[in-house]
Write a structure and sequence with these properties.
Blueprint (H helix, E strand, L loop, with lengths): L3 H19 L13 H4 L3 H31 L5 H28 L4 H23 L1
Helix pairs in contact: 1-3, 1-5, 3-4
């Protein structure tokens, strides 16, 4: 579990970088959609894709050891139940985060501001995780 705090901090740092990469750097599109080739033709698009990849990588560094620890520390008779409860909580937090994102966007937050908010909220969770595992 020693790498879990690094994963949590990585999520926050790369979400913050995603805010800086996307804030005001992409042109507003009207009409036609922005294709992948055009999106990746500049440094900004590549930077956004790299940030998302690094958020996903950090998420794996965070969640995989936690899931493995839950399974390893569960009694054999309760392991399936514990994994099921973990999956229910994961789904619940996904729904809560989607609703929170929708509310922030309804309050006229821009997508980059949403990234910044998520980075800051996750940073609090990262420090809580680091403190809990210390």
């Amino acid at each position: 579990l020693r790498y879990v705090p690094f994963g949590a901090i990585g999520i926050s740092l790369f979400a913050l970088e995603l805010y800086f990469a996307s804030a005001g750097s992409l042109p507003v599109q009207t009409g036609d959609t922005l294709g992948a080739t055009r999106f990746l033709s500049g440094w900004t698009g590549c930077r956004i894709v790299l940030d998302m990849f690094l958020i996903a990588l950090s998420g794996g560094i965070y969640v995989v050891p936690l899931n493995a620890a839950i399974q390893a520390r569960s009694e054999n008779a309760h392991r399936a139940r514990n994994v099921a409860v973990l999956n229910v909580f994961n789904a619940l937090f996904m729904v809560v985060s989607a609703v929170a994102s929708a509310l922030l966007l309804a309050l006229d937050f821009t997508v980059p501001e949403l990234f910044l908010t998520l980075a800051l909220v996750n940073l609090g969770a990262a420090f809580f995780t680091a403190k809990s595992l210390a």
